[in-house]
């Protein structure tokens, strides 16, 4: 696990390029405090910050092939690298280390652009071929590890985090204001754009090739459903159990101690159970609040006792929650108002004091049907059997009924992720200072739904989440909050062997009108008590709504809502009215308030205050 940076251009002074790439790497030092590696020639410069996990003595980067014509920097882990190394050795390649990084060099020599499709793991890597003047990079299929790029003329920059670009003199920092409405509605931007103009995130399952000032993007892998109907419930449970057990074993590959996050939900409990079966003395970590109604600690404690594993508990106070947000928005690169990132930040901080790697349960909901949203999709699918004209009539007759109104719409129009914060674009526009002519949030999702027209509604929702919500929200906060504390977070549900089983599951084995993760829970019952396997999803509950009604935190919010950043972008009277009505209990506006608050904090950090900030 590491941080990578670099750039290429027509020509430059190698010594000056080396200094620049070092400054870029310094801005993401938190991703790799164990070591630094730099490379520069007259056309390219690559930098690396290392968090030593595998081959502690011999895995330094940048790494070179035998004749020094290939250079690679790599962030992540390749879990099938021993198998690939054997294949490459049989083909005549000579290995100088026991590091998974070296597989990328020889793999490129052997397979070229087909290399990413052979990798099992989480990764973002970039190779520089000095002979051909080619820069090649790729990102894992799920988007577990980040990779950003920026180009201007003949200059091409890449990095694990956007903030690294701030150190390059050719980077022109500008706020992508046209996408502000989308951020406010969705909490993130689907697709590859970011809130920095000209900065793009390489999409999951894609590779890029840059040569002679030209960029080409290519999809090397796709997530596709291939539903099977020939297995019984017991056979599905066995298949899931086998695949996930193998994935946990692969994800435990490390030369340092591996721990586990434990919330008490089925995903983390099953992960901890499998890890504990394979590893003596497994350490688990949980987080919660003094407010018991929102705390996961009792459930985590119960799970830890059932598994017989020690569990370190962390309690987050309101003061800690608010004080940490400035640092959190800096580490995130783009504003993210998902309150769950805050307890995750403290959970990672606690775990890093004892271990260097943790396993976590991200991805299970998207693969196995864990969100109530998917159950709603099952209801909606049945409703679609009525004639569209009748559905439209019913929607007009009862405009206050959300189900009837959405039932008359197309799938992309009723996507809940599109208007996640506001009921509609019209409501959002009350708070914006100027008018925007951008697409509606729902239309941003239309291209995704268009690609899966043949799937049932719940399955289509899962597929769209795998392309958008998972990489741009769930995995981004998991990567940034763990890396903020130099902790490697691994996600064994997001494994190609587990994916293969999940893509075959019939919808009824994923979710029904009332049940989520049907087959996964059946698989969990093979290892867990029924009460733990059947526990309902809680998410990451946060007592933020009640805190915002307290004088101290209300005042903090109001100060931001009347400040210069708010004045520039928003109608501050409307912001203050929203805050006041929430405080008085007239409305529940936590999500809206927090979206504005986090954006203002982020904008101050990246566009107002001196850089880098003092955290």
How would the blueprint of this fold be written?
Layout: E1 2-8, H1 14-26, E2 35-40, E3 44-50, E4 63-64, E5 70-78, H2 81-90, H3 101-111, E6 121-129, E7 134-139, E8 148-152, E9 155-159, H4 180-186, E10 199-201, E11 206-211, E12 214-219, H5 233-251, E13 258-261, H6 266-278, E14 284-289, H7 297-307, E15 311-316, H8 318-323, H9 325-332, H10 341-352, E16 357-359, H11 364-368, H12 372-383, H13 388-397, H14 402-407, H15 425-429, H16 441-450, H17 457-467, H18 469-483, E17 488-490, H19 496-502, H20 518-524, H21 530-533, H22 544-547, H23 551-561, H24 564-569, H25 572-583, H26 590-608
Structural features, described:
The protein is an alpha+beta fold and 615 residues long. Helices cover 41% and strands 15% of the residues. The chain contains 26 helices and 17 strands. A 6-stranded antiparallel β-sheet has the order 2-3-1-9-8-10, with helices on one face. A 6-stranded antiparallel β-sheet has the order 4-5-6-7-11-12.
């Amino acid at each position: 696990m590491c941080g990578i940076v670099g750039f290429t251009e027509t020509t430059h002074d190698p010594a000056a390029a080396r200094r620049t790439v070092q400054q870029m790497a310094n801005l993401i030092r938190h991703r790799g405090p164990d070591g630094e590696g730099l490379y520069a020639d007259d056309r390219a410069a690559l930098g690396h910050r290392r968090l030593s996990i595998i081959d502690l003595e011999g895995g330094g980067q940048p790494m070179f092939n035998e004749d020094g014509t290939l250079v690679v920097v790599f962030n992540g882990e390749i879990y099938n690298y021993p198998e690939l190394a054997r294949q490459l050795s049989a083909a005549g390649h000579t290995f100088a280390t026991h590091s998974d990084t070296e597989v990328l060099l020889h793999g490129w020599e052997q397979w070229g652009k087909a290399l990413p499709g052979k990798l099992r793991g989480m990764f973002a890597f970039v190779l520089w071929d000095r002979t051909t003047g080619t820069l090649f990079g790729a990102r894992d299929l799920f988007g577990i590890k980040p990779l950003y790029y920026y180009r201007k003329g003949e200059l091409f920059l890449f990095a694990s985090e956007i903030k690294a670009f701030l150190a390059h003199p050719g980077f022109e920092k500008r706020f992508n204001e046209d996408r502000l409405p989308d951020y406010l509605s969705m909490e993130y931007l689907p697709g590859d754009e970011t809130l920095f103009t000209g900065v793009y995130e390489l999409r999951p399952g894609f590779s890029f090739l840059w040569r002679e000032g030209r960029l080409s993007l290519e999809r090397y892998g796709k997530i596709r459903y291939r539903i099977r109907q020939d297995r019984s419930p017991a056979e599905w449970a066995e298949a899931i159990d086998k695949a996930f057990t193998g994935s946990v074993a692969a994800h435990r590959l490390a030369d340092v101690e591996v721990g586990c996050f434990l919330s008490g939900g089925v995903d983390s409990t099953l992960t901890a159970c499998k890890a504990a079966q394979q590893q003596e003395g497994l350490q688990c970590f949980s987080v919660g609040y003094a407010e018991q109604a929102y705390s996961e600690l009792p459930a985590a404690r119960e799970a830890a006792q059932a598994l017989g594993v020690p569990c370190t508990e962390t309690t987050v106070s309101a003061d800690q929650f608010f004080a940490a947000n400035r640092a959190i928005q800096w580490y995130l690169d783009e504003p993210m108002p998902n309150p769950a990132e805050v307890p995750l930040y403290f959970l990672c901080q606690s775990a890093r004091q004892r271990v260097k790697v943790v396993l976590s349960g991200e991805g299970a909901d998207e693969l196995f049907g864990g969100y109530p949203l998917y159950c709603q999709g099952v209801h909606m699918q049945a409703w679609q059997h009525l004639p569209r004209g009748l559905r439209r009539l019913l929607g007009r007759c009862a405009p206050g009924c959300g189900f009837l109104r959405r039932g008359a719409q197309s799938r992309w129009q009723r996507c809940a992720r599109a208007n996640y914060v506001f009921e509609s674009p019209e409501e959002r526009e009350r708070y914006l200072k100027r008018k925007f002519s951008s697409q509606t949030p729902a239309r941003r999702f239309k291209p995704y739904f268009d690609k899966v027209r043949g799937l049932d509604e719940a399955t289509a929702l899962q597929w769209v989440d795998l392309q958008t919500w998972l990489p741009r929200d769930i995995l981004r906060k998991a990567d940034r909050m763990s890396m903020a504390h130099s902790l490697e977070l691994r996600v064994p549900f997001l494994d190609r062997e587990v994916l293969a089983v999940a893509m075959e599951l019939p919808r009824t084995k994923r979710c029904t009108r009332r049940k989520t993760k049907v087959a996964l829970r059946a698989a969990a019952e093979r290892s867990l008590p029924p009460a733990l396997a059947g526990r309902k999803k809680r998410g990451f509950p946060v007592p933020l709504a009640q805190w915002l009604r307290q004088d101290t935190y209300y005042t903090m919010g109001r100060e931001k809502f009347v400040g210069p950043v708010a004045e520039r972008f928003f109608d501050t009277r409307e912001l203050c009215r929203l805050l006041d009505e929430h405080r008085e209990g007239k409305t529940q506006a936590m999500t809206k308030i927090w979206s504005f608050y986090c954006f203002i904090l982020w904008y101050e950090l990246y566009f107002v205050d001196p850089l880098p900030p003092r955290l």
